[in-house]
């Protein structure tokens, strides 16, 4: 009998889980990939930077999975609102939560609620045309912007703020963001790390890219770098990344109008300003057993925009246990949450790794299902879901519906850009028919 599997979340983790299930069960499995948006691909569409199109090419692989026999995309359906996890467990033999980690981890410092302080999920969602953030107010009228965090998301945000309109126009950055950035007054972008260059989690390519921007120069205080001999202890990839940073410290000052200041050993302690963010107060730190410890020395970074790129949390779903301290679902390493309920990707392990890291994750969950002796309980799950959704007045979007949205986005692209994203769900639904 056919195994019925529901995967919640049409991002990389969801598609790799579907791919693994197809590989294992072939035609013996029927898979519904349910997403709250009418569009698939999750973080590839709304997280990966618009000027990193080569990473986005992986959607062709996900498309092939979705076009395989027995696989459906069920978009515009929100689990927890249109259908509960309990109801899905009643319909399907297994439910996998591949919902990612879409919420910003709070900074938790005084003044972090001032206008002008935003999280990277919001800022990245804004420039990537995510419907939730299309109306976000991003103040770009001040010469300074502070980006908190020393990971690749911080680099993405800095690069988008630093690039010229011409550099960005050939990407699929949302039109509203391109227009706003065109008028941006931001000239000093501060990337604030509470620890040092050796502890930064930038990857080599992402750090190196900052050295090749048309109008921006990265700057680093050489005193923040450990002695060069200390690099020998680093893992080779990480050493190469640090070599890029060393290069930034040695470069003579150019006449480029935008500067990306690496502010290492600085812990954010407050955001201050009269009715809006005007400066980020940071405390100088030193390392003790690898941890950042404040020295009491304070310093103000003038800025009208503060973007916290310090990590993400998975959204809670009614009826599903949640580990608040971890910001994700609890469960074992294989993704088991409860009987027949699993998680994969960031919802299982937290916000770490590259897109490709989700592939073994998806395969691991399927191995767990096999080890758990998952069996078909019979029934036509897709038909049962459709009937339930129809009774609730929900309007699911199929993969063919998404293909119509996709075609419309490609058709309205700026010259040289791959697509112009539609940022309104109702406009998307109008296209689906
Ligand atoms: P990340 O690499 O974990 O970096 C988070 C940063 O936030 C760390 O530097 C961390 O510092 C800092 N931080 C956390 N809490 C803080 C606090 N309260 N105050 C100050 N700093 C704080 O995470 P990410 O940049 O969000 O990226 C998430 C994942 O996506 C990563 O695996 C990343 O590589 C991946 N990604 C990849 C790409 C790409 O390949 N192009 C692009 C974007 C994202 P500590 O180290 O001191 O904790």
Structural class: alpha/beta
The chain-level mean pLDDT equals: 97
Small-molecule binders here are: NADP nicotinamide-adenine-dinucleotide phosphate
Radius of gyration: 23 Å
Uncertain residue segments? none
Beta strands, count? 17
CATH topology of the largest domain, by name, is Rossmann fold
- Percentage of β-strand residues: 15-25%
> How many domains in all?
2
CATH superfamily of the largest domain: NAD(P)-binding Rossmann-like Domain
Which tags fit this structure?
alpha/beta; Rossmann fold; FAD/NAD(P)-binding domain; 2 domains; six-stranded mixed sheet; six-stranded parallel sheet; 16 helices; globular
Mind explaining what this structure looks like?
There is one protein chain. The chain is α/β, with parallel strands linked by helices and about 425 residues long. Helices cover about 35% and strands about 20% of the residues. The protein has helices at about 10-25, 40-45, 55, 60-65, 85-90, 120-125, 150-160, 165-170, 175-180, 205-210, 235-250, 345-350, 360-370, 380-390, 400-410, 425-430; strands spanning about 5-10, 30-35, 70-75, 95, 105, 115-120, 145-150, 190, 215-220, 260-265, 265-270, 280-290, 290-300, 305-310, 310-315, 335-340, 340-345. The strands form four sheets. It has a six-stranded mixed sheet, sandwiched between helices. The chain has a six-stranded parallel sheet with strand order 6-14-7-8-10-9. A three-stranded antiparallel sheet has the order 11-12-13, with no helix packed on it. It is globular. The chain binds NADP nicotinamide-adenine-dinucleotide phosphate (NAP).
